[in-house]
Protein 1
Amino acid sequence: MQNTTQSLVVNNQVSRWQVFTAQEALNERAVRHIEEAARNAIARQGSFSIVLAGGSTPKSVYQLLPGIETDWGKWHVYYGDDRCLPPEHEERNSLMAHEAWLKHVAIPAAQVHDIPAEQGPEAAAQAYNQILQNAGEFDLVLLGLGEDGHTASLFPGHIWDDNQAAVPVFGAPKPPPERVSISAGRLSQAREVVFFVTGAGKQEAVDNWRRGEAIPASLIKPTNGVDIFIFGVNL
């Protein structure tokens, strides 16, 4: 069960920290949160837009999503980032989400917007910029947190054009070095943002974030603030 909730305002970012005592509890709460966000968005405007994260915790959440009650035909799926690898490569975020979840539900293919990262960083970022022009405000953005404080493929020490919706990434410290990411500014254009943070290896990044250091995750500043679901990290 969830055992702690804390709210902070640091550097104009409102954050709500929800600590879970088990990974399973975090996963189940995440699924309920996504289901509720979809229900509210569809009731409000007839559609639901979600931005997906990569990683093991999002994968375990995605595997549970086929069991929710929703109108899949109203969903529009985007990706926060992806690696410049072939579409069938096991490290592509789009392939992971497809295998864990999307192939099991009836979201129309035209409403699943993969980043064409196989085209290379610059061409893929340009193409995704065009796609995102029609996306409007995202209803829900899912993000992770790296041990170095990165989120999506926005790494510390890198400079990107925050006026662009999607940006090319070169020289990433984690392989592969070439990627495409939605920018911090565009990720902030969201009704809700939820971070999944699990594992003791994230402790330093969390401490830095809460102290107000300018890690990439701290640059995501939607109007309604961000929710952070954490397990295995001390506050």
Note: The mean pLDDT is 96.
Protein 2
Amino acid sequence: MTNTPAPRLALARWDIYCRVIDNFGDIGVCWRLCQDLASRGHSVRLVTDDASALAWMRTPGGQPVEVLVWSASEAAPLPGPAADVVVEAFGCDPPAAHVAAWRQASIPPVWLNLEYLSAEPYVERSHGLPSPQCSGPGEGLSKWFFYPGFTERTGGLLREPDVQQRQQRFDARHWWGQMGVPWHAALRTVSLFCYPQAPLPALLAALPAWSEGAPVLLLCTASVNAMLLEEALQSQGLAQRIQVQRLPWLSQADYDHLLWACDLNLVRGEDSLVRAQWAGRPFLWQLYAQDDGAHGPKLDAFLSLHLAGAEGSAWAPLLRQAMQQWNGLALGSRALALPEGAAWQAHALAWRERLSQQPDLCTQLLAFAQQKAQHGAGGTAPA
């Protein structure tokens, strides 16, 4: 992997705004961005309405980031020097008092709206477009849409400059021991991070064939109901072939370690999907289900990119079907249609290499903000 060096702002102060909706993905993405920016020498503040997940999500010894409570800072501008760049994560609508302060500043900050990750065509069309503020506290300012993505015409994916080097140095056997996991070389290991509606019986039924008869160790993240898994194993007569181990809440670094150490990763939402791709291991992605079914076209768009050039193979249709079944979007047999392991693993590495050719999101974000700052694109303060 290569990361293109990005120009730094002369005054590199960043404020990241994040509202936590109902899961950990929003703040997970924002925290990784904060850490990446801080590691490159920038001063970063995170303004969030719920910082509770950071108690376990933070990596000990990580970069210094100031965390501010949203409700305690709504009525007045943030204390201290004004930011050069503000990032509104996922359209979270920063407090009016803060926006008004940006408008009154002699040099308004560059205002970016970091959007959700998708492979759908609108992302390339919308990435980098301005949204002039014609009314409200930010009247006269411009907000810029910044879309993560999987192609060169998007903002890329979060990827720290040293992630590949850290993975190469990673000792899985030592980490399993630290986590108290009874690992041995004959086991096939699977990590499970999913939403409650995931078809767990279909996954369990598929694992013995996928592992080619080897015993399976299924490692459940703390949000997964391990008791339901155990009951499903008993009902299917698989308790002797699949062992379930519940994990504690993991820091972001240890979650990366889990993905690196496993043979197959089941991930959900946005942050864990990105980390699974950098792990270079086979994965199944469960999207956040939308009431209007929008997650269906979103999955199809991703699979069209992910499987481009491989549709003539024997394994690619199986992976497409498995992803659709895992998301409740296709009727199929009781067991998921998992591809053969070696071909799937080779594709995961090839996909990672393809993504690695693109500049990472933080590098692109820095360059984009620098360009807008040089052209005074934050807006013009009133006379």
Note: The two ends are 48 Å apart (CA to CA).
